[in-house]
Amino acid sequence: MHAWACCFCSQRSFELFGADFMLTEDMRPWLIEINCSPALSATTTVTGRLCAAVIEDTMKVVLDRRHNSKANTGDFELAYKRSTISKPPYMGASMAVSGQHIKRPTCWRG
Asked: Residue 27 and residue 29: Cα distance in Å, rounded?
């Protein structure tokens, strides 16, 4: 849940998570990782079809379902529902760089 905690939360935004699985020889799934904002670029013919479907279904959920709670959501299914959460406090670090200028050596030839 660390990725979720770091994301900006708002009633007018959403976050898409991607889950990577590996199948054993007897077809049992093992969760490898969960990604915050996964890349949706097609690298194979399979991911090409999957990514296109995810993008289309995401738009159905985000746009169509906003106005019609019974709208088609494609292959998405509601797994869990809870009340709206409040925005978490900013937890980022200061990105300031501090230091001093270092003079280039006189013997440097670059």
From this structure: 6
- Bridge partners, 56 (sequence order): none
Give 11's pLDDT tier (boundaries 50, 70, 90): low
Q: What is the pLDDT of residues 27-67, one digit of tens each?
A: 999 999 998 888 888 899 998 999 999 999 999 988 888 88
pTM for the model stands at 0.55
Residue type, 22: M
Sign of CA dihedral 27, 29, 60, 77: positive
Cα distances (angstroms) measured from residue 101 to each of 96, 97, 104:
15, 12, 9
Residues forming a β-bridge with 19: 34
Query: Tokens for 56?
Result: 């289309």
